[in-house]
Automatic annotation (TrEMBL):
UniProt protein name: tRNA uridine 5-carboxymethylaminomethyl modification enzyme C-terminal subdomain domain-containing protein
GO MF term list: flavin adenine dinucleotide binding
Pfam families: GIDA, SAM_GIDA_C
Biased composition (Polar residues): 183-195
Keywords linked to the UniProt accession: FAD, Flavoprotein
Domain of life per record: Eukaryota
GO cellular component, one term: cytoplasm
Residue ranges constituting the tRNA uridine 5-carboxymethylaminomethyl modification enzyme C-terminal subdomain domain according to the UniProt record: 666-739
Length: 741
């Protein structure tokens, strides 16, 4: 009745080679593991991906969606670095929207609903294309370590004489002249922190399907265990060991215990976090007709830069294979049941039994508990694929006993007769405080050991994939260089001013986290520059220097986009009209109103007009094209006269591949300069004292988030230097607090 269950076959096949020596071993086949393995393989490293079940590689364990506010930026950056997630999301996407579309380009977040089976198949298909990526179906039990002597980092110890590929450099730092100061500091910090370790990695011990153990050897190991590190699953008062349930099944995937014990032995700072997934329900038992529909946007904005540059749509959009999502909401009856059955919820290991879950993706119980004044909370009903009736009720996680979960769901509009196919559950697991890592995501205690994903305290597919690509790139470059006997390469580190990935990793390794970390645009002090539309311009050139991008199509697309953008901005800069003519052709409301009409004799360029608040690039281009066509007609008419005029070239409209970037680059140019000045001003004043009696309230500091106000009020930092070390307190918030004080 529900269509096909999770497909049990795999496009991946375990390596038949008896070889047990590799440059890099990646443990785990989730989002971090897939990106890490592919990144390491792209650097030329002989890579092994070790996972319990090849059929689950690329599985969407929780929600069937990719992207969103902040998260969509990460996916675009992963794609710009040659990663997999953007391409796979386009292949499997069945519903596309851009969140925050009414706001500025810097905070717009592309998001798409996935067909779970298509996503997994696409990911496995891409991984199967790497000839130097070997697949091992086994469970990682422990590390192989050389503890005889202290081990130095496998990265170069100075900038001079080395470029990003480990060879001679003509321009010093990273072989690139535009590296930022913050990035230099991160790299120097990485090199100094990694100068001495307690041990060096030399491989892993795995247990195969036949229960026999085998040693696999490698120069670098990337651990991406997700929720499996001493994972415990919970539903009501039932507790049982596991990392997750197999999709649509009661079968549990075993936790990783041996790795956790070794990390503990080396004094890694371990803690416990939890996350949850809601029940999956039968779509045939939902009354769709009375719910609010949310159709997909058409045309869709792809995640893939190449797809967007070529003017192509994701395959399911092009074929018309799209779904609708629907909106319902909780109510007073729902909230009463949520609190009445509080006593049936699990008792966790963390936070004195309460559990330490994601602040920004809370359970329905946490929502009702925190906001008792709210009359309702939205729930989005998201179909899980084209060929299934399973539906994901986004926003309704809560590990109550199954019969209680069904009672709660049936109180909502359209859900009165809903049937649960698979109950929701929570998982509590170990994580390593990421302050134990360098900016390459290599551990400070064990040389050659890298961590990425939820083991570092993050939540979300996109955050995991972002860490995976950096850990995999550094592990691959270091491992391959060691195998060749080359000098250690310089680490690949992204600065906070270069990428949201840089913000993510810097937040983690410098401040750590005590709760699941989620990316938001507000965490980036340079968010006006770090837009989803320009990720390739910021990162792809750098990715080629580090061996992450080698395909000619992506490089050619970048070259062409850079040329077209620069050419368009140059033409807008050179075209000018009298102010009165801009107003006459575009309308006084859009073109500056009465204040512009007063400037009768003045001229303004098309670039200057586009800088005005409500003027769009299309409006400016339409006027320019109109004027140029008139000038062309005049030139044709003048050919028979004694004074022929030159015919101008018609500018025309910007294609979709450059439109957003051209418009944002011009509109944000002055704001970018001001943003850099604001951040520099508070950095120079980090010793400034904060009044001890300052009241951290919404009235005093209206732009700060609830999390930031809560942490300031609890910790009460004495200086801005102390405030800057608070996990979850963003640099933009520091700038605002500085101006307030």
């Amino acid at each position: 009745a529900l269509g096909p269950r999770a497909r049990s076959f795999s496009l991946l096949r375990a390596s038949s080679s008896p070889d047990t020596s590799f440059d890099v071993i990646v443990i785990g086949g989730g989002h971090a593991g897939c990106e890490a393995a592919a990144a390491a393989a792209r650097t030329g490293a002989k890579t092994a991906l070790v996972t319990q079940k090849l059929e689950t590689v690329g599985e969407l364990s929780c929600n069937p969606s990719i992207g969103g506010i902040g998260k969509g930026h990460l996916v675009r950056e992963i794609d710009a670095l040659g990663g997999l997630m953007g391409q796979v999301a386009d292949d499997a996407g069945i519903h596309f929207r851009v969140l925050n579309r009414r706001k500025g380009p810097a905070v717009r977040g592309p998001r798409a609903q996935m067909d779970r089976d298509l996503y997994k198949e696409s990911m496995q298909s891409l991984l199967a294309d790497y000839p130097n990526l070997h697949l091992v179906q086994a469970s990682a039990q422990d590390f192989l370590l050389d503890e005889a002597t202290s081990a130095s980092s496998k990265f170069g110890s100075s900038f001079s004489g080395q470029d990003s590929s480990g060879g001679a450099s003509s321009n010093g730092l990273l072989g690139a002249s535009s590296a930022s100061n913050s990035q230099e500091q991160m790299i120097q910090s990485t090199l100094s922190e990694g100068s001495s370790h307690q041990a060096r990695i030399r491989g892993v011990v795995v247990e195969k399907d036949d229960q026999t153990q085998q040693e696999l050897y490698a120069h670098s190991v990337v651990v991406t265990t997700g929720t499996f590190l001493r994972g415990v699953l919970m539903m009501g008062h039932d507790r049982y060991a596991g990392g997750r349930h197999l999709r649509d099944s009661e079968q549990v995937e075993a936790p990783s215990v041996g790795l956790a014990k070794t990390l503990e032995r080396f004094n890694f700072p371990l803690g416990r976090l939890k996350t949850g997934t809601p029940a999956r329900v039968n779509g045939k038992t939902i009354d769709w007709d009375i719910l609010t529909i949310q159709p997909s946007e058409v045309p869709a904005q792809p995640f893939s830069h190449i797809l967007q540059f070529n003017g192509q749509q994701p395959p399911n959009v092009a074929a018309g294979n799209l779904i609708n999502c629907y909106q319902t909401a909780t109510n007073e009856e729902t909230h009463k049941l949520v609190m009445d059955y509080e006593h049936t919820l699990p008792v966790y290991d963390g936070m004195e039994g309460k559990g330490n879950g994601p602040r920004y993706c809370p359970s329905i119980y946490k929502k009702v508990q925190r906001f008792p004044e709210r009359e309702g909370h939205n729930c989005f009903l998201e179909p899980e694929g084209l060929n299934t009736d399973l539906v994901y009720p986004n926003g309704m996680s809560g590990p109550y006993p199954p019969e209680v979960q069904e009672k709660i769901l049936r109180t909502m509009k359209g859900m009165g007769a809903v049937e649960i196919v698979r109950p929701g559950y929570d998982v509590e697991y170990d994580f390593v405080n990421p302050q134990a890592l360098t900016h390459t995501l290599e551990t400070k205690q064990i040389a050659g050991l890298y961590l990425a994903g939820q083991i570092c305290g993050t939540t979300g597919y996109e955050e995991a994939g972002a860490q995976g690509i950096i850990a995999g790139a550094n592990a691959g470059r270091a491992g391959a260089a060691q195998a060749r006997g080359d000098k250690p390469p310089l680490p690949m580190v992204l600065g906070r001013d270069e990428a949201y990935i840089g913000v993510l990793i810097d937040d983690l390794v410098t401040r750590g986290t005590q709760e699941p970390y989620r990316m938001f645009t507000s965490r980036a002090e340079y968010r006006i520059s770090l837009r989803a539309d320009n990720a390739d311009l910021r990162l792809t050139r750098k990715a080629t220097e580090y061996g992450l991008v080698t395909d000619e199509e992506r490089i050619s697309a970048l070259d062409a986009r850079e040329f077209l953008i620069d050419d368009k901005i140059d033409k807008l800069r050179k075209f000018e009209l009298k102010v009165t003519e801009w107003v006459e052709r575009g309308g006084s409301e859009h073109m500056g109103g009465s204040s512009m009409i007063k400037k009768k004799g003045q001229k303004k360029t098309a670039e200057e007009m586009l800088n005005m608040p409500f003027v769009t690039l299309k409006e400016v281009e339409d006027i320019v094209t109109q004027v140029q066509k008139e000038q062309q007609q005049e030139a044709e008419a003048s050919e028979s006269t004694d004074e022929p005029k030159d015919a101008p070239e018609i500018m025309g409209s910007s294609p979709s591949s450059i439109y957003d970037t051209v418009e944002a680059s011009i509109k944000y140019s002055s704001y970018v300069q001001r943003q850099h000045k604001d951040m520099e001003s508070w950095r120079k004043a980090q010793g400034l004292r904060i009044p001890p009696d300052l009241q951290y309230t919404r009235d005093n500091l209206p732009t700060l988030s609830g999390e930031e106000l809560e942490k300031l009020g609890t910790i009460r930092p004495g200086t801005f230097a102390e405030a800057s070390q608070i996990s979850g307190f963003s640099p933009p918030a520091l700038g605002y607090l500085y101006h307030y004080v």
